[in-house]
Amino acid sequence: MLGTALFTIAVVAGQSSGGLVVDRAGLGPAGPRATTPPRVVGAVLMLGAVVLSVAPSVSTDAPVVLALLPLAAGLAAATQQALNGRVAAAAGGSRPGPSPDDEDSVVASVLPAATINFIVGTTALVLAAIVAVLVLGAPDPLPSAWYLYLGGPFGAIFIGLGAWVVGQVGVLLLSLGAVAGQVVGALVLDLVLPSAAGAPGLPTVLGALLTLVAAGVASAPWPLRRSATRNRRSDLPS
Asked: What does the alpha-carbon distance between residue 237 and residue 221 come to, in Å, rounded to a whole number?
């Protein structure tokens, strides 16, 4: 009802703002992360990049209030990534994340999060499929293109990698990096395998490049001036 463009903008808005809130609340395995100016600017730039990329496609007659649903989904996704990271950290020991040099530890830590996600997801899809078949009938025939069945394996890889990466960089950077990868990857696919819609326009290309800038800005270090705070405290009378 919203169209892909507006749906994408709402989801990214939810992921970006949710990443800031979840990191600040310390729901991720690495604990609280300060809401620094670079992180806020990076989140805003990412939203702007997505808007720039998909703006030519925004067209809907549906009430814009429906955008609150994918916005809530983006917020939920940010929370899910944090909790997946906690599960991975618990499975891998007391560390925020397993050592990247210990492949067995990485696999062991991410399997529980990926397994739980896909048991719940598969159950929901099976129930939805049963209802769809009862109401609409079974698909005839099933899709024959082999690559259409890669979504499941790719999804498992994404959940597993996300559960590990979130312990290293936090929810916000994971969300922004994933969005940048989606936009840039989609741009590459459109250039290599152009669809009936034709080659991407200049706004789409600029938006894709801006997603990389946004992720880089959000990851920039920021001095917290803790030493200045300690110095002020030391000047107080005993």
From this structure: 33
Q: Does the structure show a pLDDT above 50 at 227?
A: no
| Rounded Cα distance, 206 and 192, in Å | 17
Give the count of domains, the chain: 1
In Å, how far from its chain's centre is CA 31? 18
Residue pointed to by tokens 């890669």: 150
DSSP annotation string for 34-51: ---HHHHHHHHHHHHHHH
pLDDT in tens, 166-205: 988 999 999 999 989 888 888 888 888 777 767 778 888 8
Give the rounded distance of the alpha carbon of 139 from its chain centre. Answer: 31
DSSP line for 136-179: H---SS----GGGG-HHHHHHHHHHHHHHHHHHH-HHHHHHHHH
Output the pLDDT for position 213: 94
Which residues, other chains included, contact 138 with Cβ-Cβ below 8 Å and sequence gap of 6+?
none
Q: What is the token pair recorded at 220?
A: 């920039």
Q: What are the tokens at 91?
A: 């499975």
Residue 148, domain extent: 4-234
1 has pLDDT over 80: no
**Residue 158 pLDDT greater than 50, yes or no:** yes
* Res. 94 pLDDT band, cuts 50 70 90: very low
The H or E element spanning position 211 is helix 202-218
